[in-house]
Design goal:
The chain is of the alpha/beta class and about 220 residues long. The protein has helices spanning about 20-30, 35-50, 55-65, 90-100, 105-115, 130-135, 145-160, 165-185, 205-224; strands at about 5-10, 30-35, 70, 75-80, 80, 120-125, 140-145, 195-200. The protein binds cytidine-5'-diphosphate (CDP). Cytidine-5'-diphosphate binds near residues 36 and 128.
């Protein structure tokens, strides 16, 4: 019997470093990469452009159904416009977490995410990769760090991009986003029962990537 295409799920809260870790793991293994948060950010942007309130579950889901999306390397195209930069703003992060509470939208995006599962494998990062979207993932990592460390990382990221940054505002925003992501009824942020906790307060990106790869090697050895 053919083995299913392997998925490595990397979930965790905002600014835990999961995007960078997931991307590097994918590159190392020659796997495809899914940044599921980008999908929610795109929907937040598209809704805003269509003057749809982020709280309007039905209209947001309808808007998502009609999206014309294209992913090319690290770029995202929405209706033939490169929105890679636009979706990275703090405002779209906030918007993403507001539209993400709607079950109808999560349903629409579910099949979009499944389409990323292609040979030889996929590394997917988000909030519900291991719990809802790819419950049969061969490895489920829950990558996290304390709120202060995450706020500090986000602050440094913004400074590096020459954007203005206010540490207290970032910390406040992270706390709000964590609360919304953890407490929503639909696909809340939580570690999968068979997940592996990776706490990164004292881990560099390289060390975190190595831990994920070690765990994957262990899986390969056991399943051989
Ligand atoms: O980069 P950061 O971790 O701040 O955010 P992101 O991964 O781009 O996700 C933005 C928002 O989308 C999150 O705060 C979640 O509310 C939502 N999201 C989700 O609900 N499910 C996912 N699989 C990924 C993101």
């Amino acid at each position: 019997m053919n083995k299913p295409i392997p998925v490595i799920a990397i979930d965790g809260p905002s600014a835990s470093g999961k995007g960078t870790v997931a991307q590097r793991v994918a590159t190392h293994l020659g796997f495809h990469y899914l940044d599921s948060g980008a999908l929610y950010r795109i929907v937040a942007l598209a809704s805003q452009q269509a003057v749809i309130a982020w709280s309007d579950a039905e209209a947001v889901a309808m808007c998502a159904k009609q999206l014309s999306l294209r992913f090319e390397n690290e770029q995202v195209w929405l209706n033939d416009k490169d929105v890679s930069e636009a979706i990275r703003s703090e405002a779209m992060g906030k918007g993403a977490s507001q539209v993400a509470v709607h079950q109808a939208l999560r349903q629409v995006l579910s099949s979009v995410q499944h389409n990323f599962r292609q040979a030889p494998g996929l590394v997917a990062d988000g909030r519900d990769m291991g719990t809802v979207i790819f419950p049969d993932a061969v490895l489920k990592i829950f990558l996290t760090a304390s709120t202060e460390v995450r706020a500090q990382r986000r602050y440094q990221q913004l400074l590096a991009k020459q954007q203005t940054a206010d540490y207290q505002a970032i910390l406040q925003d992270l706390l709000e986003r964590d609360a919304r992501d953890k407490n929503r009824a639909s696909a809340p942020l939580l570690m999968a029962k068979d997940g592996i906790l990776l706490e990164t307060d004292h881990l560099s990106i390289v060390e975190a990537v190595d831990r994920v790869l070690e765990n994957y090697q262990r899986f390969i050895q056991f399943s051989a």
